[in-house]
Amino acid sequence: MNEFYNKDIISIKDYSKDQLEKIFDYTEKIMNLDLPTRREICKGKTLSYLFYEPSTRTRLSFESAMASIGGNSLGISDISSSSTQKGESLADTVKIMSIYSDVVILRHPLDGSSRFASEVSSKPIINAGSGTEEHPTQAIQDLFTIKKEKKKIDGLKIGIIGDLKYGRTVYSLLAGLGNYDVDVHLISPKPLQIRSDSIYEIRKKLTFTESTDLEEYIEDLDVVYVTRIQKERFPDEEEYLKVKGSYVIGLDMQKKMKEDSIILHPLPRLDEISIDVDKTKNAKYFEQAENGKYTRAALLGLILNENGF
Ligand code: NCD
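A: This is the predicted complex of the input protein with N-carbamoyl-L-aspartate.
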């Protein structure tokens, strides 16, 4: 039996380096399969999605991934049109989704929401973003992109820039990177530094520096991972306005980077990467978004097939 079969994906912390590498191998495999064979992988299977927060890439890449491997998707992307509006609980909604499908993709504003959902669901839950806590499938796609572009992860210098306080992709990425031998530099405005209580465990596996000065590191980095300032998670808009636009990767910054370094961003971007950087060879964020379709197809194929594919 394949070890991912019928399992939830709640936290990236549940994955070893071996398991991550296996997922990357299956992703490569899916990318190289001819379309008719690919469409057999989840034929007749149904994915459901339940999104309590906005999404473009995560939901659509799951849908697109499921279609590419022959499965169907159904779900709720606008909670105001569901029975949540009538007061139905998360537990009951998840129970119903798990009756109508083989796997449930959940995004919710509360930390712990996916773990809770997995306790009431009769089908595997995939965490598509839980509060400021985690976004494990984004980290899998980020790590896969780093490996694909740089041909390795070990030995790299990785800068993570922007909103390290509220950005959940950062916590999942750091936990994933804890499996590798990397130099991490965290760069953020002071009020948006990493939440030290949330990286208590990660600290044991990963060494990193913290700084407010991007210029100090930019020339040395192999990977420049930029994040959006998470306006919606600030308790006070005044606080957001103080840090808005703190770091902008424009052509001036891009010119300082190593020729073969890559710029990643989970997207959506606002003003933190200017659009004229898109055409440079360092910009890999759209490739990263595309890779999300294949890493998710691999995950679905593994979760839904006892013997893998
Ligand atoms: C991220 C998220 O929802 O955490 N989006 C995504 O899934 N690619 C990042 C963000 O919203 O800034």
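The mean pLDDT is 97. The pocket of N-carbamoyl-L-aspartate is lined by residues 57-58, 129, 135, 138, 168-169, 228, 266-267 (CB under 6 Å).
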